[in-house]
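Practice set, problem 2.
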Amino acid sequence: MKKIIVVFDGFCILCNKYVAWTSERNPSKNIYFTNFQSTFIKTNHPEITLDDTIFVITQDNKILKKSAAIKYCMKHLNINPIIKFILLFSPNFLLDIFYRIIATNRYRLFGKLDICSIPNDIGKENILF
């Protein structure tokens, strides 16, 4: 089973909602979550810093971001097959345009938490501190 690590902005309400949504739809529980402020990131991947994107670290330590990261996670989720197909086969450059618009305005559109957090709906075994 592939171990996937999602690194997200713990201050971002949209990012927290995405993480909770992803966790609910990952039946094999092979997706782990951490935020930019975690000891795990500071120790193992100090090159990853808070940015306006979600990062995914693959099992072979490849770091993906933006739509490539989202698409990689989608492959492992139990979601509507038509939506999955559309997302997986849409060109990254096109998805990245929409991603950039939303990511740049995420705090203004969805709000910002006062403290960096991880959603409560995720099992502790899937959180990397």
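Problem 2, part (b): a different protein.
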Amino acid sequence: MNDQHRIVSSESEELILVDRDDNEIGYASKADAHDGAGILHRAFSLFLFNEAGELLLQQRAPSKRLWGGFWSNSCCSHPRRGESLAVATSRRLLDELNFEAELEYVYRFCYVAPFGDAGSENELCHVFLGRAGSEIRPNDSEIAGIRYLTGTALAEEFERYPDRFTPWFKQEWQELNRNYAEQLARYCAP
């Protein structure tokens, strides 16, 4: 099957439930973890930059239950039951963008973001930085589009069109710039 069209996630896959200290406390289906106010579960967000220091953004496929059609960071998802973050991030990069990358862990945080009646994200999210592959082939079952932006251009778009972006992306980008600027500067052009 063509890697650019395959289905790589389902509402029945089991996610890892955690407490606020990231200790595993159980498992729930992706559907159950996102219903209503959601159940706190482990997640990750990847920020990938090209050699020019521009951030790879993805537009989530319109079929996504939460924030379909919104622009977000390069890649974000969840480890599945029994998966480490290293395995999950590698799997998801291949699933969504069809490339591999070395990643640098930066920080983790908890957030809740409701999306109307469709459900909520309630995540303990691990944030990573890395370099984007030179040949990106987005999986259109997950991604509607991709583009690159400099840090300055992204800040301008956040200001001008805040409702076009996922809430976790805006929060993570602000935190990276505020408290992890030195790490971010190794990847990102102004």
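Answer key, part (b): The mean pLDDT is 94. The helical segments are 30-34, 85-97, 151-160, 167-179, 181-185.
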